[in-house]
User: What shape does this take?
Amino acid sequence: MATSATRDKPRQSFAGLWNISFGFFGIQIGFALQNANMSRIFQSLGSSLDDLPALWIAAPLTGLLVQPIVGHMSDKTWLGRLGRRRPYFLAGAILAALSLVLMPLAPALLMAAILLWTLDASLNISMEPFRAFVGDMLRKDQHTAGYAVQTAFIGAGAVVGSIFPWLLDSMGVANEVPGGGIPDTVRYSFWFGGAALFLAVLWTIVSTDEYSPDRMAAFEES
Assistant: This one.
């Protein structure tokens, strides 16, 4: 009979901790771009300041609904080689990246509002399983380190997503559109963010292998 020591989860190196949480860097870039630029996009498409709170209310409500549902569903999922959490990483990343690419191309206020709802839902589809992923993949004595790395990526992604429009502006990219419209700084930032989000999440998907339900059961017994 195997001893409990042989059934403990393997200890992850720093590279393993990095791979497990790197996708959170991309997700947070998406959140930062959304939070910093959506009001400007709405106003560029004709929204008044008085209408902005109503347009924004869909995003937090979506998170409240999506997070517990996706968390519960991912606990019950196992898709063979793709695993338990990674299918949600992939689905959310694809939808979020598409939303970020399409957002600055929105021709009307209603389309931008729909894309904001889609973007927020997609980010939450990827984000919630990432929180559980640390618990799945790490020994208990590494949980603190795992969440610390995840928090560092959250902060780094927020900085990168927030600073990119300003950086483009300082490089001479147009930050205003004569006659109104979404400026190039915002367009390019969203397109960069979509690519960065997808690639960061894809890195976690291809660089990690989840433990099967049988192995997880053995870990829990030990």
In short: The helical segments are 14-44, 52-56, 58-75, 86-102, 109-137, 143-170, 184-207, 213-221. The radius of gyration is 20 Å. The chain has a mean pLDDT of 88.
